[in-house]
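User: Hey, quick favor. My workstation is busy. Could you predict this chain's structure for me?
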Amino acid sequence: MIIGIGCDIVEHKVSKDLDWPNNKQIQERIFSAKELEIYASKKQLKFLSGRFAAKEAVLKCLSKGMEDGISLTDIEILQLIDGAPFVSLSGNTMELSKTMGIRKWHVTISHSLNFSHAFVIAED
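Assistant: No problem, here it is.
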């Protein structure tokens, strides 16, 4: 059964204006060490934009926002060997997910020239 659905879109210009590729302080507040390690091998702005969109989509599945005390670094969007993204949770976010009965996450990320879009489904 579907427990939550979330989607988000991020304009690449906004990510660039906020200097996500170079601002280590912002990177460490939004992205986990594992995500930044993957980014280091790609060095593409759309990667960071897509990961942020996916994190926002996860928050929507949880009916929460960043102002609810959830750390974005507790939501990791990692990838399988074939490059397919997957959701990995830790901390309070993982506990909330368990409390809600979420056992499986589905995530897809798409990019265009100007935008990155993510769609997430939380399932029991």
